[in-house]
Design the sequence.
């Protein structure tokens, strides 16, 4: 794949983060940026940490980079409750950037799920939150 390009919207997105990033978050932000922008192979990275230590923000910044480069992004969550929570957070964070997440889980009505899958396959839907 081609490396992701820098985009001024990335800085604008990151500036929306309402907290001061920790040194560990800064390190992971930098590593993920390097994985995405400096390499031609797909990123293979696991970010783990305790609840409330910023893993979602790491994911959102990577997702933003995907979207700003015209690609699709999918965030998988282990539960429908967490997927719905992530979808609400993403809707708020991406509202000023023209991206609206769609939620696909076992609770999604079949007709709507079929439409979402078709939108994902066609590339029309760019930001998807789902369960495994």
Sequence:
């Amino acid at each position: 794949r081609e490396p992701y390009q820098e985009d001024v919207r990335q800085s604008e997105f990151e500036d929306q983060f309402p907290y001061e990033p920790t040194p560990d978050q800064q390190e992971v932000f930098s590593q993920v940026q390097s994985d995405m922008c400096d390499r031609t192979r797909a990123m293979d990275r696991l970010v783990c940490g305790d609840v409330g230590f910023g893993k979602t923000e790491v994911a959102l910044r990577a997702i933003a980079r995907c979207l700003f480069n015209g690609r699709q992004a999918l965030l998988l969550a282990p539960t429908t409750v967490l997927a719905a929570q992530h979808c609400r957070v993403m809707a708020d964070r991406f509202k000023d950037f023209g991206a609206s997440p769609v939620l696909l889980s076992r609770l999604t009505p079949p007709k709507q799920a079929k439409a979402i899958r078709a939108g994902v396959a066609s590339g029309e839907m760019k930001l998807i939150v789902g369960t495994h």
In short: The beta strands are 73-77, 102-104, 127-131.
